[in-house]
Design a protein that fits this description.
By secondary structure, this protein is an alpha+beta fold. It folds into 4 domains: 2-57, no CATH class; 67-134, 2-Layer Sandwich (Alpha-Beta Plaits), CATH 3.30.70.1710; 151-264, 3-Layer(aba) Sandwich (Rossmann fold); 267-369, 2-Layer Sandwich (Hypothetical Protein Tm841, Chain: A,domain 3), CATH 3.30.1180. It is built from 11 helices and 18 strands. It has helices at 2-17, 46-57, 77-90, 112-122, 162-170, 186-196, 211-223, 236-244, 252-264, 305-317, 336-347, and strands spanning 19-20, 41-42, 67-74, 91-99, 102-109, 124-132, 151-159, 174-177, 198-204, 227-230, 267-273, 278-280, 283-285, 290-294, 297-302, 323-329, 352-359, 365-369. A 6-stranded mixed beta sheet has the order 15-14-11-18-16-17, with helices on both faces. Strands 4-5-3-6 form a 4-stranded antiparallel beta sheet, with helices on both faces. Helix 3 (77-90) runs antiparallel to helix 4, helix 6 (186-196) crosses helix 7 and helix 10 (305-317) runs parallel beside helix 11. It starts with a helix and ends with a strand. The model is unreliable at 25-60 and 136-145 (pLDDT under 50). Keywords: Kinase, Transferase. This is Dihydroxyacetone kinase.
Amino acid sequence: GGRGLVAVLAALVQTFTGEAPKAGAVASAAPGSVAPVSAPARVDDRADAQAAGQAHGEACEEGGPAYEVIYLLEADDTAVARLRARLDGLGDSLVVVGGDGLWNVHVHVDDAGAAVEAGVEAGRPYRIRITHFGAGDAHMAGAGRPPRERAPRAVVAVVPGEGLAGLYTEAGATTVLARPGEPPASGELVEAVRRAHAREVVLLPNDADLRHTAAAAAEQARAEGVRVALIPTRSAVQGIAALAVHEPGRRFDEDVVAMTSAAGATRHAEVVIAERESWTMAGICQAGDVLGLIDGDVAVIGSDVTITAATVVDRMLAAGGEMVTLVLGDEAPEDISDHIDARVRESYLAVDTVVYRGGRQGAVLLIGVE
């Protein structure tokens, strides 16, 4: 907000006077006082101005759309079909997912206003986020500091809760927090890649709905000279499995293969509370029902969180497994991990249970079976 206003005013000054304010010209001041501003530095020639402009825009992929637009939309299926056609003509990287009247819309465009207006015509858009791709590291341009040396390799992961963010960070990953109902934009993932400041990056989206967003972020990072491998993890528990075998000392390709194999060998499930009546693979659910989803599909409909979770674990272990990973959300019952751990020890030989606290993560419980 404030930084954006400063950038606009600086551009206005340079346009009308030919003089560009110095970076960091505003000094700190006491509360309520006016901060002194140093005299603007004169732009001596066109070459200096052109170099400054190139530094400001270097983060934006040449020839690509300037903005990423994301919003939630309440609309019927017919209106969404028209919206898809309209947005497809405005830009690229179009993703519209959802159902039952609620949709998540993502698109890269040059005209962000038109993308939002299309949503207004289709229904009720909200939680609107617009990211300018070229704004990434503009504040670093001309800072006069020597460039920090890049790390050899880093892992960037999307995580659904503060607890998991801490776990991933302890394991050395750079994290992007995905709040319930607010998936991160590709611009946020690109920013995380920049924060990681590595020559090679492994990207873990940890959500099937983020695969297009993560792919767009990977392309943007590659355009900036970073070698990026996208592992299509569909859940945070698959990301945990991948991170557990991450070895920075290995060759990049070997490390990516090992992490991909570990993630692929991990089945994932989650226990959530139904928000509305809906048709599912397991039958019709009502608002307030407890749903057990295995590999993205509803497999169990119940009324008790602990019993439903135990049923889900039983179904997953019926196909075999060596380790059960539980990630508890804030709404999980206090004794659920003890109950499932005891059930696993009694019913399955040589199967370990690991428990983490994920905090506010959208799902009551995340389950992984390796």
